[in-house]
Every structure is written in C-alpha cells, then in structure tokens.
Specification:
The complex is a heterodimer of chains A (389) and B (243). By secondary structure, chain A is α/β, with parallel strands linked by helices. Chain A has 15 helices and 17 strands. A six-stranded mixed sheet of chain A has the order 6-7-8-3-9-10, sandwiched between helices. Chain A has a four-stranded antiparallel sheet with strand order 2-1-4-5, covered by helices on one side. Chain B has one domain: MetI-like fold. The radius of gyration of chain B is 23 Å and the shape is elongated.
Chain lengths: 389, 243
Amino acid sequence: MAEESVSASPVRFESVTKRYPDADSVAVEDLTFEVPAGEICVLVGPSGCGKTTALRMVNRTVEMTSGDILIGERSVKEGDAARLRREIGYVIQQIGLFPHRTIAQNIGTVPALLGWDKERIRARSAELLDLIGLDPEYGDRYPSQLSGGQQQRVGVARALAVDPPVMLMDEPFGAIDPINRGRLQNEFLRLQSELRKTILFVTHDVDEAIKMGDRVAVLKKGGQLAQFATPTELLMEPADDFVEDFVGADRALKRLALMRVRDVDLWTAPLAQAGDPCEPVRTAVSAAEVPYALLVDGEQRPIGWLSERDLAGEKVPSTPDSAADPLIDSDSVLRDGLATLLQSGALYAPVIDARGRLTGVLSVEIVSDFLSSGKAAESELAATERPHD
Amino acid sequence: MIEPATSFAAIDQSFFTDRSGGGCIQENKLFCPGWVVDNYDRYVDPTLQHLVLVGSAVVGGFLIAFALAILAHRHRFLQTPFLAGTGILYTIPSISFFFLLLPITGRGPLTAIIALTAFNLQIIFRNITNGLRNVPPNVTEAATGIGMTRSQVLWRVEIPLSMPEIIAGLRIATVSTVALATLAVFANGGGLGTEIVSGSNITFKTGIIVAGSIAVIMAIVFDGVLLLTGKLLAPWQRKRVIT
C-alpha cells in the first residue's frame, strides 16, 4: 500500500447485494456505481435503506452476499479483512475513540498495527494534530478531556493516519450540534480539497448530502439505487417521485447551498472615504445599482452606510449614521448569505473577502434573480463540476 | 462448650510462658500488652501461612476466572453455565467445602486453598465479564473497523478498558479471602486462624485480637496496593475534566 504518497483510488460497486439470512427482504440490492478517485460520494436515504450496510461492505465489516466492490483494480474480497481495513480510513458517528489511550496514541493506532517505529508514529500524530487544527499538547490528553467536536476531528485524524486512498465515513457529524456540525463540515471540505481522498460518506440528511457530495447516491428502502448524480442534477432533475419527495419541496432553496456568495454577480455600491467631497458621491448614488454609498477605509474595508444626511455636508464624515452591518463573508454559501440578510432586515449587505476588503454588495434581488434565471442552473452545473474549492 | 468467665485454669498451658503475668491473662482481659510483647514471634509463621493461602487463592482464582471469562466472552452461550457453576462454588460454605474435599485432598493447606479459590471464582469472573460487557460498542466497532483482529481488540482495547472493574473484583475477592482464610485452620491449613482458635476451644481475647488485627491490616494493605495498581493501570480515569 502507499504509505507516503497521497493517492486515491476509485471505488466501484458491481451488482452488490446483501441479503441477511433471517430477513425476508434484501438489505442492499444490485448496487452498481463508481466513485471516481478523489471525490466524495454521499450515500443518502431514509433509515433502513441500506446505506450503512452498503458502506460497511467496502471494508467488510459486513460481508456482501453477491457482487463485488473494487478499490482501484483490486477486489475487497481478496485477502484478509483486517489487513484490508487498515488501508481504508473509517470514521463512525459515535467516533469510537479509545478512552484509555491518549489522543496521540489514538491517532497512531493503525500505524502501530502496521508496525511503524515509535518515532515515525509520533511524527505522524503531530502532523495530523496540526492538520486538524489541534495544539500539539492535545496529544497527551485523553479523549474524555476533549469536546465532542474535537473528538470528531481526532476521529478523522485517526482515519487518515496511514494516508489511506479511500475513506468511509458513517454519519460522521451526526452527533454534533448544528452549529459545530456546519463548522466541521466546512473544515472537512477544506481538508479534502488538499487531501483528495476517495470518500464514501453516509448521511440521512439530504442537506448534508448536497453540501458534502461531489456525487450523491440516493437509496430507497430495499437498498435500491434511486439516483446517482451530482447535487445540482439531483436538485434540478430528480429521477423519480421518490427522489423528488426525499430531496424536499424546498429544493429550489437547497440549490442556494451549492453556490458561494463570491460565485454570483454582486452589485457595486458607490464608495467614499472620510474627507472626500460629498458632491460626486451624491451624483454616484443617484445612478448606482445600490442607492446608498458605502464608507470604506484606506484598505477598502467597509465602515458604514452613508445616509442622505451624512452626504448633505461638504465632506464625507468619518462616522456615518449606520454601521456596515451585517457583513457577509464571500466564502459562505449563498443560503447562509441570504439568511444573514433576511435576519438583519437589511436590504443590502457588503460582502468581504478573508482580509475584510469589500468585494461587492449582496441583495435579496440578486438571489431571487439567480434562482429564476436559466443561466443560474448552467453556472451551478459548471460550478459543481470542479470539486469544492 | 465455652464457659462464660474463663478462669486461669481453663487457659491453655502454652500461655503460661507469660512473664509479665499480672492478673491480665488470668482474668482474660480484653487486651494484655505484656503478653503480646513476649509472644509476638508466635504470629510470624501463621501470618506467612496466611499470606500464602490468600495469595494462592486469589492468584489461582484470578487465572481460572480470567480464562473462563475470556471463553465466555468469545462464546456467549457459556456465560450462563459459568455463572451458575461459579455461583454454586461461591455459595458452598467454606467449612463444608473443607469436609467435602477431605477425602480427596486430605487435611492441609491445599484443601484450604482449593476451597478459597473456588469461593473467589464467582466474584472475579463476574467482574471481568461485566468489565468486558461494559466496553462501549462503538469503541470495539471502531477498533474492528480500523483493522484490529479479534485478539487485538481483546488485548488492546477490551481488557485494558475492563481493568477498573477487574481490579475492583480482585479487591473484593482479596479482602474476603483474607477473612475467610482464618477458617483454614479447620482443614489443618494453618494461617492466622490457628491463633484465633488456639488453645482448647478457649477464647483467649488478647490472642484473638492480635490475630484478627493482623488479618485486618493484611486486608487493608492488599486493598491499598490493588487500589493503587488500579489507578496506575487506568490513568485515563483520573482525567475527566473537559478543558
């Protein structure tokens, strides 16, 4: 196996079927699809649809009845199950960290099983702690001393320890509260944009599927594949009533989770700095898309909105009547941007980049135009072609 | 038959070695320090015998119970018969056990050790089994899922995690055995019991108190040592604070 080089392998399901001897119906039926190397494929469906069973057949914690699963060119059925599992990262909902081992030892579990020497294991643990954004001192702590979110990160680090080409994640963020879940999801997507693992990801939450997946496999009861598509295709063209129902009546809104604020055409507002003469600003306001001028500092960071009263004098004041609030991060998804806007009751919100500099102005109108235009769908499709960046 | 007020004449001849005499022994007062000073050496051998009895019974009981618990962990159907079997051994009064064993093993320490070991099995077996059962399923699931073999899961995850409960079982077993081993004298097995029932069925209070105290101290020391061992073996349990 590859221990040093970052590599990913495609995963192919070929007519995979699982039938439990004591059950009348099949758990997974004739599942065929391929996950290209380096992509996240989300298996989603109602409970009892066999998504977890399908996932577990990859590392043989459940043995398939018939069919085959190939990782690269190799069948998972070849060789010893325990050895296979060491080459596949595995993250479960309840995390399952070893309470009696330190964080560093937890992360080093699989390397230890593979017989790495102590020094190398320690170096790798430190590297992974850094990768998941935990201080090196956390290495000596026990899992019970960490918060749920931190434990889940360690669970991911443990799965990544030997740089496996494939990772299986079974509702990894399911037990985390909604706020931290969103953060962990974003963090994980950022991680994945560097790691480019082939990931099979199980969830029952269609929003999470759409957010995390490069591709989504929707399963229905009896373990049948209802649709295998990109999130956008899923939202634009559900294959049948079941998928349409499952995706939900608000699928138009869900599409907003696929786009980032920086991906849409933002409006521009007239800009002014403190001390500028007011006259040209007043002229600019009357002709602009956004009928208010924004006060910015020398670094183009928004300070506040300039009211008519602010602009009545000779020079632009340094303290405007209303602050530039809310501010929207250009990296946030469109849905969150819209939510921020609606919550604050503002008509417009300045959009800033990571350094706090203005990149444009978001309005509710931009969002509604985006949803109604046919072009939106195309640009969405184009946008989702490239995996999360 | 024990006379309510033991007179000088009723006390075993071996106690006449008492120099300090006074009236303490004759009156069989609660505690005669002078006698203890002169006779402490008579407790050395019984104490050592007692240690051997307890040590053998606890170590033997642990090894057997551990093997049984591992077997029952692998093969669940063995759990009930093992529990029932050790349960019966546990309930047989040790004294009756001695007499049951006499025809086979004869009078001597071996008989006592066998009976005490049998008594221990249930306590230790139950604790090991509970310990293994209380390992969170998500932990074993993760262990298997990341590539541990069954025996790696057992030795690297399940047994270490059961350690607090295993040690707790050993503590109960050890303390009970220290007390029960005083009965070994009835199987001619030696131990501190010889000093408690010494004399001809006569209760010499000072002797009983000294022998009893040695047993109590032994129990406390063993318990403390095991408690400490448990803490060393389960360092993760001391750090519960979420920071």
